[in-house]
Amino acid sequence: MDFRLLRYFVAVAEELHLARAAQRLGIEQSPLSRAMRELENQLGVQLFDRSTRLTRLTWAGQVFLGECRRVEATVDQALRSAKAAAQGYQGHLRIALCDSMVQPRIATLLARSREDEPELEIRVFELPFA
Amino acid sequence: MDFRLLRYFVAVAEELHLARAAQRLGIEQSPLSRAMRELENQLGVQLFDRSTRLTRLTWAGQVFLGECRRVEATVDQALRSAKAAAQGYQGHLRIALCDSMVQPRIATLLARSREDEPELEIRVFELPFA
DNA sequence: CGAGCTTACGATCATCGTAATGATG
DNA sequence: CATCATTACGATGATCGTAAGCTCG
């Protein structure tokens, strides 16, 4: 699976118009059309309803669009985390506990976590459930 | 950002040995070495400690490895969702409620959800908190 | 030395743009 | 017929593999 195809797909799915999507991507219609076909082939899933003149998303296309946005967000997060880590940032995990939570298990979890990820700073809060 | 570089990076980060990683990927050492440099350049982040003979992950590299796995999982999920949707699958959301949860807000939430995503099947459960 | 990473270089494959073709509202 | 999507084809650019070079344990 190629990231390029996903970027192209998001543009087409949002514009529902190859020419506009192509312009937005800085390429021509032709490679976009081929790319969408290629994507559908690779997935084995029809993403668009084509009537040669109209471009609409199938249900699978709508679902896939949402998933593609998730992917983009995850990739974006990955790049930012790496850059932050390079600048000495040490990740930290905030855990909110409810009153009713069983405490002993938390203790052993934290102990194991410190073994596996000693650099990780962990802060524990106690909050009312609301 | 290219998926190819991410796949390569995960292999190298897990093997910590270019030759083995290359073998696992079905390519040669040479393009892998270039790919890792390319990745570091694109990120502007040093991912490996190179001593010409030893390959280790920097802290940023360790963080990025974790993020890459998240990306892979998200992509995998995207492909599966699209295929499932193509076969008529309609997503459903399961919501578990605790006794103390405020009920009125849930009702309005569900109503709005039905407007926005009528195809979505929603099941609500009530569970004890444990 | 030699195991393992890197650089050099030529070849192959993928992707692009231009241009011609087809279809439908 | 005009607009939009598709197909054909030649060109450019990216990625690969082979092979040589370099470095440190």
Overview of the molecule:
The structure is a homodimer of 130-residue chains. Chain A has 130 residues and is α+β, with helices and mostly antiparallel strands. Chain A contains 5 helices and 4 strands. In chain A, the strands form 2 sheets. Chain A has a two-stranded antiparallel sheet. In chain A, helix 1 (3-15) crosses helix 3. Chains A and B meet through helix 4 of A and helix 4 of B. Chain A binds a DNA duplex (25 and 25 nucleotides) through helix 3.
What is the structure about, briefly put?
The first copy, chain A, is of the alpha+beta class. Helix content of chain A is 60%, strand content 14%. The first copy, chain A, binds a DNA duplex (25 and 25 nucleotides) through α3.
Descriptive terms for the model:
elongated, homodimer, alpha+beta, DNA-binding, Arc Repressor Mutant, subunit A, 2 domains
Question: Secondary structure elements and their pairing?
Answer:
The structure is a homodimer of 130-residue chains.
Chain A: H1 3-15, H2 18-25, H3 29-43, E1 48-50, E2 55-57, H4 59-86, E3 92-97, H5 103-116, E4 121-126
Chain A binds a DNA duplex (25 and 25 nucleotides) through residues 4, 17-19, 27-35, 37, 50-55.
